[in-house]
Design goal:
By secondary structure, the chain is mainly alpha-helical. Helices cover 62% and strands 1% of the residues. It has one domain. The chain contains 23 helices and two strands. Strand 1 and strand 2 form a beta hairpin.
Length: 499
């Protein structure tokens, strides 16, 4: 198994390093699609070994390569306003292919669409709660089943839909990691209310939108992009070409017995680095030396921690846990260097959320999405660090947090020239908030801290070993930071009730 574990780490860190190294060189410059080639080249090195399904690895690799080549053929760059959507064009195409190839699955999707209409009271209630901020900060397009998320609502409709359970799981996955269109539940309802519609009229619009995401996903995504003013490239040409390039890969995965839920998720979750994590918005954000140093240092902590336990792992799930746990601990450690910690920040951002709802009632459905990711990450890191600090007590020993049985190496932070010299980036005598300020920038965009290229690569490796089980969404308590520290919403979660 060591060979597999080492391969997982190598592939994940090669992807992460491709992003970080590109940002280091290109930050502050003008972004072009060609800048993402190092990440594409990294993905091309992924292989299937042992019992891994080649069809699953191909879903990842071929999607990234197709995405890159299609974008390169359609445009030279992508506007910051358009880059969040680049990972939303894949699942609509895949869903349509699956429906065309499998009549029984198509009938199940139709039954689910009817069930949405039959769930008017549920849709209305959840849309009202989203509009009013009832659940507090929430990831509306989350990869779990937290209160207020699209996945949560979809799951509750599916529970009352009489179709095969594996079809239910595929449909749920499609609006989880699969990101079937850019739509987040409740957005059209909110906009309709603010435009003067009655609650009944706004609910009807919300139902019609949710139905279209599954009836005509490609058209739905194209129209959503029209409404969003997406101008960087022709989204219809993109999806047409993506279908041409990926149809054989999708069929091969079906023939290999890969769960439809995995077929719907892997192609989308893998492409986000091309014109999103490596993009103009990221180049702009990383002009700040402290922001760039934070990403570098957390990456170094992650890689060092992963490699130091290579001889100790008991499961490939342990590797994923160490990757995400070490980055969480590293980020919380940086907060604490400036005298902050997760409970303080969660309280701050949760309070801000409720003010934000009042200021911007028709806010975008995903507005607080990454704030939630950031809060959940630092809350996990706080728990890891708190335990280690208690055990160290006043001994003065080196602080070595543990993710389960595995140590986190925080030393790269202490060796980082920028992070250890904040006085160089502000009025020197008062340099006590510089690192926190950088982290607040990253609170809106923590993708390379959590880290998405790492988790996407590792999850593809894991799915290649468990191809017949739908990996998405996470069927476990997410330990939502806001719900654990400020808001009281645990009773509205669906993780135990997941189809």
């Amino acid at each position: 198994m060591k060979e597999l574990y080492e391969k997982m780490i190598n592939e994940a860190m090669t992807a992460q390093r491709a992003d970080v190294d590109t940002l280091k060189v290109k930050r502050g410059q003008k972004f072009v699609i060609e800048d993402t080639k190092p990440y594409v080249d990294a993905v091309k090195t992924m292989t299937a070994i042992g019992n891994q399904s080649q069809a699953v690895i191909d879903l990842h690799k071929n999607s990234v390569v197709s995405h890159y080549e299609i974008l390169k053929g359609l445009t030279t760059t992508v506007r910051p306003e358009d880059d969040p959507f680049v990972e939303h064009y894949q699942t609509p195409v895949v869903l349509e292919i699956l429906k065309e190839q499998d009549e029984a699955f198509a009938k199940s999707v139709d039954a689910f669409v009817q069930a949405i209409a039959d769930s008017e009271s549920l849709i209305s209630l959840e849309a009202v709660r989203h509009y009013g901020g009832f659940y507090g900060p929430t990831c509306v397009v989350d990869f779990a089943l937290i209160p207020g998320s699209t996945s949560n609502v979809v799951n509750r409709v599916l529970l009352k839909t009489d179709i095969p359970v594996e079809h239910k799981r595929a449909i749920l996955a499609a609006k989880s990691w699969g990101m079937n269109t850019s739509y987040g539940f409740g957005e059209h309802f909110s906009h309709a209310l603010e435009a003067g519609a009655t609650n009944a009229e706004a609910t009807a619009k919300e139902i019609a939108t949710m139905q279209k995401l599954y009836l005509e996903p490609v058209n739905a995504q194209a129209e959503l992009m029209d409404d969003a003013g997406m101008t960087s490239f022709d989204q219809r040409k993109y999806m047409s070409e993506y279908r041409r390039r990926m149809e054989a890969t999708i069929k091969a995965a079906m023939d290999d017995g890969v769960h439809y839920g995995n077929i719907l998720t892997v192609p989308a979750y893998s492409v986000g680095d091309v014109s999103h994590h490596i993009a103009q918005s990221t180049f702009n954000m990383c002009k700040d030396d402290v922001v760039m140093a934070t990403i570098e240092a957390v990456t170094d902590v992650m890689e060092s921690s992963l490699r130091k336990s290579l001889d100790s792992y008991k499961s490939y799930w342990d590797i994923l846990s160490v990757a995400t746990g070490s980055s969480a601990a590293a980020t919380e450690y940086l907060l604490q260097l400036d005298g902050f910690n997760a409970p303080m920040v969660v309280d701050l951002l949760t309070r801000r959320f409720h003010n934000y709802v009042q200021l911007y009632p028709s806010r975008g459905a995903a507005a607080e999405l990454h704030n939630c990711d950031f809060m959940d990450m630092i809350y996990r890191g706080w728990k890891i660090l708190d335990k280690a600090q208690r055990m160290r007590n006043g001994s003065g020993e080196e602080l070595v947090p543990m993710v389960g049985k595995y140590p986190v190496d925080l030393s790269p932070i202490g060796k980082n020239e920028v992070l250890m010299n904040p006085q160089r980036y502000v009025y020197a005598a008062c340099a006590i908030t510089v690192r926190f300020a950088a982290l607040m920038s990253l609170a809106d965009y923590p993708c390379l801290l959590t880290s998405e290229p790492v988790t996407a690569t590792m999850m593809t490796n894991i799915i290649a070993l468990e191809k017949e089980t739908a990996a998405a969404p996470v069927r476990a308590c997410k330990n939502c930071a806001s719900a654990c520290l400020v808001d009281m919403r645990h009773q509205y979660c669906q993780w135990k009730e997941a189809v």
